[in-house]
Amino acid sequence: MKEDKAINLIPKEFVSDVRRIIENGRQQAFSATSAIAIATYWNIGRRIVEEEQKGNIRAEYGSRLIAGLAEDLRTEYGASYNKRNLEYFRKFYLVFNDIQIVNELVHNLTWTHIRRLLSVTNPDARLWYMAQASKDMWSTTTLDRNISSHYYERRLAEQRKHPKETLPEAVAPYNDSDPLEYIKNPTVAEFMGVLS
User: Fold this and answer.
1) 170-173: long-range contacts (C-beta < 8 A, 24 or more apart)?
2) Burial (0-12, 13-18, 19+ Cβ within 10 Å), 10
3) How many Å apart are CA 184 and CA 36, to the nearest integer?
4) 114 touches 106 (CB < 8 A)
5) Which of 24, 33, 137, 191 has its CA at 20 to 30 Å from residue 114's CA atom?
6) What is the per-residue pLDDT across 143-193, written as a single tens digit (0 to 9) for each?
7) Pick from 133, 91, 88: which is nearest to 110 by CA?
8) What is the Cα–Cα distance from 65 to 45, expressed in whole angstroms?
9) What's the rounded Cα separation, in Å, for the pair 27 and 141?
10) Three-state SS string across the chain, please?
11) Are 88 and 78 within 8 A, CB to CB?
12) CA trace torsion 74, 76, 81, 82 (10° rounding)
């Protein structure tokens, strides 16, 4: 009974502050892990491309190279290093071959965001979506919705109709990201070796 009374005496503001500290720490850990994973995948992609291009090797060798690498890596690092993902890493490097741009724009993004961005064929749109998703902390659902609805193209068309007007900042229809997404995110768990 004494414990129950003691719990009720703890100021609610104090508890709220401690909760905020915990949530901030968790979010920072998630962001750091995600950024490191993305940099790792970019470097794997770079290395694959360098190996493929050594001695003017043809694309068919590249396909065997990735398949063989996947076979070797899966044993030690799990399913997240399968052939399909290694092809994504390769494409990631080819599409965003400037690591400085990647480092500047991947804050708040996960590998799931990056994979979705790889499907955008227009380079300007791809960079815009990447920058907006990072800046406004779009969830992957929001990013997917904005890409699928051609949000960039619609904004561009609107700008062409009214060239003298300044369009308001891009705001996603809503931000439905789950504050506990870092725990549930399989990409982070796979990168850390928790899931194989």
Assistant:
1) 170/132, 170/136, 171/136, 172/132, 172/136, 172/138, 172/142, 172/145, 172/146, 173/142, 173/145
2) exposed
3) 18
4) yes
5) 24
6) 999 999 999 998 888 877 776 665 555 544 434 444 444 444 555 555 556
7) 133
8) 12
9) 18
10) CHHHHHHHHCCHHHHHHHHHHHHHHHHHHHHHHHHHHHHHHHHHHHHHHHHHHCCCCCHHHHHHHHHHHHHHHHHHHCHHHCHHHHHHHHHHHHHCCCHHHHHHHCCCCCHHHHHHHCCCCCHHHHHHHHHHHHHCCCCHHHHHHHHHCCHHHHHHHHHHHCCCCCCCCCCCCCCCCCCCHHHHCHHHHHHCCCCC
11) no
12) 0
| Residue 82 one-letter amino acid | N
Which residue type does 151 have? Answer: Y
Token pair for 95: 């599409």
Residue type, 74: R
Of 13-27, 50-64, 176-190, the poorest mean pLDDT is in 176-190
